[in-house]
Design a protein that fits this description.
131 residues; two-stranded parallel sheet; 73% helix; mainly alpha
């Protein structure tokens, strides 16, 4: 499988078009190995989403999708902000913002693979249930 075919398969799996994937593919890969980098990324996602700035939001999501993220970092803020975007109904947003929603869903899957953050939610939920 070529790189392009692999990207297309990934896009198909997440409902992201090839044109939308090109935005991710053309992003320069970064290395995120400091907690402050993830906190800054979370703040950028929150600010862009709050302002409705789909360009800035898409850029931030693309950078995180291409980034090599250390699994030892504190992921809570970036996971939360990503999920807030990812859980929007893309049909209720603008065309540009719906691209960001789909990319956020793709990023949420990556963050789950790296951090297994849903296990933390399950622990919190089970503690609340037993209280």
């Amino acid at each position: 499988m070529t790189d392009v075919e692999a990207w297309q398969a990934l896009g198909h799996q997440h409902g992201v078009s090839y044109d939308e994937l090109v935005q991710v593919m053309t992003c320069r890969p970064a290395k995120i190995d400091q907690d402050w980098q993830l906190r800054d990324a979370a703040a950028c996602i929150r600010e862009a989403h709050t302002k409705g700035d789909s360009v800035l939001l898409t850029d931030a999501l693309c950078i995180l999708l291409r980034a090599e993220i250390s699994p030892t970092l504190c992921c809570a803020a970036v996971c939360e902000e990503t999920l807030i975007v990812a859980l929007e109904r893309d049909e209720d947003t603008t065309i540009d913002m719906s691209v960001a929603v789909r990319l956020a869903r793709m990023l949420a899957c990556k963050l789950e693979r790296v951090f297994k953050f849903t296990a933390h939610f399950a622990k919190k939920t089970s503690r609340r249930s037993s209280a």
